[in-house]
Write a structure and sequence with these properties.
- One of its GO terms (molecular function) is DNA-binding transcription factor activity.
- This is Helix-turn-helix transcriptional regulator.
- By secondary structure, the chain is α+β, with helices and mostly antiparallel strands.
- It folds into 2 domains: about 160 residues, Sandwich (Jelly Rolls), CATH 2.60.120; about 120 residues, Arc Repressor Mutant, subunit A (Orthogonal Bundle).
- It has a 7-stranded antiparallel beta sheet with strand order 1-2-9-4-7-10-11. It has a 4-stranded antiparallel beta sheet with strand order 3-8-5-6, with no helix packed on it.
- A hairpin with a 5-residue loop joins strand 5 and strand 6.
- About 25% of the residues are buried.
- About 5% of the residues have low confidence.
């Protein structure tokens, strides 16, 4: 099957997150784009094999059947068939914001996404094609693009390794992962948090997550969690006189004995002494009219 290139030059006129720019299906020839393409691309291998070269790397990556190649706009690249005339590719290019793309797992780095079958994806490409070009229906084409992205997300989620990145994850994505993990620790410090489970949830190994924490916070995930718990305990000691030391320890997810030992290691005094010191400081500040100072 072949679908000649159809383009929608007015694809940015209506207010949806994604709009179709070009669509088609053909035997892929060698392409070299030193400045990248002006829109984001999805290249669906229907049959045959190809190779892709990202201009910032000194290697070529193979693209086999049942693989979707995602290349973000403006990313320099080149791709070629392994054998001339033996790489059948369906393609859809689209415009969309970074936020919208990120919500679908399409970041600012290329990715080779293995899928179970391209049959449904190719059917959706053909339907997008029928609503493009001279018969362009912007709403219908965008709706079908969402259906294509949904099917891609569904199938890639079923794979053991859903998104095989062709290049290292960009620093912004790494930072976002660490911040999500850190926020989770803050939200659920009172629970028994397993770093192994946390790493699995954000898609990294424990070793990778530890490396990212060291780079971002100059501490390991376990040390960061300890800091979060002790800081929360310190605040509760100062602001909630009705809670016992044991209650505070359990509230922040620590055994009371362990909490006392670690608190002393960090602040130089045990929690009970700290509470008395802060109470005296508050009384003195009240008498002098000055606000108490926190360490």
């Amino acid at each position: 099957m072949k679908l000649e290139l159809r383009s929608n030059l007015s694809s940015g006129e209506h207010g949806v997150p994604f709009t179709v720019y070009t669509v088609g299906m053909e035997q892929q020839n060698a392409i070299s784009r030193l400045e990248g393409f002006s829109a984001h691309q999805l290249l669906i291998t229907a049959s045959g094999k190809g190779r892709v070269h990202l201009m910032d790397q000194n290697k070529w990556d193979s693209i086999a059947e049942n693989t979707v190649l995602y290349i973000p706009a403006g990313f320099p690249n080149e791709y070629v068939p392994v054998a001339e005339g033996d790489w059948l590719v369906a393609f859809v290019s689209f415009h969309g914001s970074a936020i919208a793309r990120a919500s679908w797992g399409l970041e600012d780095a290329p990715a080779a996404i293995p899928v179970r079958s391209v049959t449904r994806l190719l059917q959706l490409v053909e339907r997008i094609w029928r609503h493009s070009g001279a018969d362009y229906d912007s709403w219908a084409a965008s709706e079908l693009l969402f259906a294509l992205l949904t099917e891609l997300r569904k199938q890639s989620a079923e794979e053991p390794n859903p998104t095989a990145l062709l290049r290292p994850v960009p620093e912004t994505s790494r930072s976002l992962t660490v911040l999500k993990a850190a926020k989770f620790m803050q939200d659920y410090m009172h629970r028994d948090i397993s770093i192994a489970h946390l790493a699995e949830q954000v898609g990294y190994s424990q070793k990778q997550l530890t490396r990212l924490f060291l780079r971002t916070f100059q501490t390991t995930p376990l040390q960061y969690l300890r800091h979060v718990r002790l800081t929360a305990g310190q605040l509760l000691l100062e602001t909630n006189e009705s809670m016992t030391i044991s209650q505070i320890a359990r509230h922040v997810g620590m055994d009371p004995t362990y909490f006392t030992r670690e608190f002393r290691r960090s602040y130089g005094v045990v929690p009970g002494e700290y509470r008395l010191i802060k109470a005296r400081e508050a009384q003195e500040a009240a008498r002098s009219g000055n606000a108490p100072r926190r360490p």
